[in-house]
Amino acid sequence: MVPQQRAAGGPPPVPDRDPVIDLARFFCLALVVVGHTMMVSPVLHPDGTVTSENTLGDQRWFEPVVWVLQIMPLFFVAGGITGLQSWRRLRARGGTALYFMQGRLLRLIRPAAVLLAVMFTGLSVALLAGVDPQVIQLLTSGAGMPLWFLAAYLAAQLNLPWLAVLHDRAPWLTLAGLTALVVTVDCLRGVLPPLAYLNMVFVWCAVQQLGFIVADGRQLKPGRPALLGVMAASNALLGLLVLLGLYSGNMLVNLNPPNLPLLLLGISQAAALQLFRPALCRIASVAWVRRFVGVAGRRSMTVYLWHLPLLAAMSGMLLLTNFPQPAGGTAAWWWGRPLVLMCVVALLLPVVALFGRLEERTTSYDPPAGRPAAAVLLAAVAVFVPAVDAVFNGLTLGLLGGGAACFALAVALLARIPVRHAPRTARSGGSEPPLPHPPLSANVEP
Predict the structure, then answer these.
(1) Could you give the CA distance from residue 56 to residue 63 in angstroms, rounded to a whole number?
(2) DSSP state for residue 438 in the 8-state scheme
């Protein structure tokens, strides 16, 4: 993005990036990678069968820990902050919701399409080479787990323009309405279980809406006592719901499909983000931290999509060797986790160098070069067809191939040669719609 120029007599330029959001995203991503290395544990049984154990998730002591470390809602809070600012900047240049959808789809499905194609090719070759189909299925289902986030995040982002309109008119009423939808689905999921997956949209759109409120929170100016009160109240309500037996105390169980506890965690984490913002800002302002987080942030989607497939592939390869395989949860298993993490990072480096540049390809928002509405909507359908299939039928090798084809079709429908932005034309009144001022200016995503 080109930094916003200051017009004569206009407001000061708004920074393109919020270093606190960059730092928060990096922390979340690092925690996800570390957490997965402590969960994935394939087991080869004496009869030749292979199963996968979630070693960390099966530990009872881990339930209160994951209550604190379940940071997926914070991803969507940050996405709400950055997405709202990107939408407002696009709209100020004359862009429409379709151009916003086009940019979001391209940004996320380019790296995902390559991942699916590589996974499908690699696992197909392994199957033809004689690897047991059970192992292939285990690797397929485990390595494809990050794709649920892609589908949920896309669903929230594609709904962002019209949710932003509702937010501008009635922010708290919009949040209350989304919360009511979440509770309604939770109440009906026992009668009709497939309804629970509607909260893949309602929960994450509601959490994204929290990001909208944080982005415009300068009008509220909540103090430390108010933020601490919000954190305490949301966690107290969550604890009460768990104590009454309405929800599980394990936030991994509550994650898929998501439910009300994830929204309550999102409220707490949004308040914590604002509470610790001054300290995070000081950390993010350190030169080497800013450079490191900036480099990692430009490849964040590649790291997220590839870390679990690489971990699953490495674990599967180890099953074919005589390398010691300590039982999950034993002392030897725990001592081996740092080595596993270092190996995953070592495997990620060349992958990120090779495929990470797909995240940096520019996407023009200039209306004259935009795709027709039919192309954008068809691309969205092509992306969500395999995602919905995976939700109800699980990930299979065939679905990986079909998903790769659907994602490639979506990219072909949306992609175009990047062009330079046309000069802005002056609007009536001599100025563009006002944008939020620092420190809540957000990271403008392409």
Answers:
(1) 9
(2) T
